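User: My instructor asked us to take a sequence, write out its structure as tokens, and then describe one feature of it. I'm not sure where to start. Here is the sequence I was given:
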Amino acid sequence: MTGIRSAVVAGASGYIGRYLVARLRHRGATVRTIGRGPGADARWGDTDAIAQLLDGSDVLVNLAGRSVSCRYNKRNTDLIFRSRVDTTAELAQALRVTTAPPSVWINASTGTIYRDARDRPQDEATGELGGGFSVEVARAWERELTDAPEGVRTVALRMSIVIGAGGGAINPIINLTRMGFGGPMGDGGQVFSWVHVEDVARAIDHLYARSDISGPVNVATPNPVTNAALMRQMREVFGAPFGLPEPRWLLEIGGRIIGTEPELVLKSRWVHPGVLLDSGFEFRFPALRGALAQIASRTRRGLLPVQLG
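Assistant: Let's start with the prediction itself. The structure tokens for your sequence are:
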């Protein structure tokens, strides 16, 4: 049983947020949410209401952030930045005026903060930060955590690509595989760091219980694969007889058509979960084939809905 009895989840309408809220409630926890929709218990911009919601809760989990699956034009980059940085800043402000704030604030970040790496894994101690828009957003996102009040332990979840049945990052890849485009993307050598959504939720349980852990925590399985291996296993698990390769020029054209950035599949993300492993965390889905088999068993036939930014 989880030790979390009451949680406040921001960004609960996204794929990870919905999964986490349902799981916590199933395990008997009281969960209240912060968001923009009518179903939220407190709305962004109403800092007093957020502070009241946080008062007396065990943990704050912030997963808010606009999808990065979009073209990086000025409008979209502003929305991506504000949806992460401004919301995190507002949570810090609310925590500072909360009478009895939660002891732990677990905030989303991204494994994309590390450089494009094919030579070695990037862990929390020795990983090298990269450059570019995505990295600058991640840096600014994590900086806001330093404004947490004294006594609130903060954890930045540097998540790799999250996969699971029913949505998230895997649906576009399933669709490509089923349409016959399940071959390597680019040269296929870029590293695909991933984590099953169930292990994200379990990692949050683990980090809540481990009062000695704070700061950046990589959330990725210790068994990444190359993009070529990913697509091969996708074809095998989802029963695709062939998969046409997608060279960079084709990804550039496709990205313009569907409104997304080729970087999302071409960057080599080699994220190693050093802190989780050193603290005794065990992954329920450590290997990709097992994770894909579980997802396939819960996925209907045909093309799946995909939410783009």
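For the description part of your assignment, you could build on this observation: The chain is about 40% helix and 15% strand. Try explaining in your own words what that tells you about the chain.
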